[in-house]
Amino acid sequence: MTRWLRLILFGAILVAGIGYLLYARWFRPIPVSGFEVNDGTLVVEIMGTGTVEARTSTVVSAKIHGRLLELDADQGDHVDSGQIVARLDDSDLARQVEIAQANVEAAEAGLDRLRADRTRAEAVLRRARREDERIRAAFDQGAATDTEIDKSAEQVAVAQADSARAEAAIAEGQKLLIAARQTLGYQQARLDDTVIRAPFHGLIVRRDRDPGDIVVPGSSIYRLIALEEIWVSAWVDETAMASLAPDQPARVVLRSEPDHPYPGHVVRLGRETDPETREFIVDVAIERLPK
Prior knowledge:
The chain has 291 residues and is an alpha+beta fold. The protein has three helices and 13 strands, in the order αβββββααββββββββ. The strands form three sheets. The chain has a five-stranded antiparallel sheet with strand order 1-10-13-12-11, with no helix packed on it.
């Protein structure tokens, strides 16, 4: 009898234990923490990494081929619009200007001589016409012969030809003077091109040449940026393209100041996605630049 009581007691304990385990696993209430729900705006941030760039940048280069004589600026310098930043060797071009100036002076002197020749030819023509009128009047009175009339007419014709030739020579001399002046202007412009100036106010971020280097038109001497508008060109996942629009607010965090975000706004969106990274460019203007 005692043995059966033990078995019954053991079975009851076993059933109770299994029941407790089932209750604890499937039926015991789960503790829940309560939170107060308030109305508000859900801010969704889209992250991207990029580089700080200037909206306006350019390569400062020479307009003509030449050797760099001196550099008047360096990397990190602020320059004003029109400020001289470099000079080319101008010795050859200076001589060309001197030659062109001498040609202009020679053309002017030649034109003065041609004008004097025209004045003399006009005077000869006037005298020939007066003489022709006198002889014709004498012929009408029987005091001159046909030979004198013919000779007088011939002298008038020769004087007219000389006057016309002098007029044509002046026209040609004027053209030569115009050509000489244009050549002088061209050589002076080339001489002026040996002085290289900054195209706008900005900051030189890179110097690519040294004095003595040979430069050609378009080759970089400096890299110049304008500081009026600095932005970040960031790569953003293409899934965010529909969520972004110009003028949306943005925050720019620099690696040098990770705890100091700068306010900005979206300026423009690229519409082409990189086929490998599936990202596109978003340009964000920085509203307050770091000091």
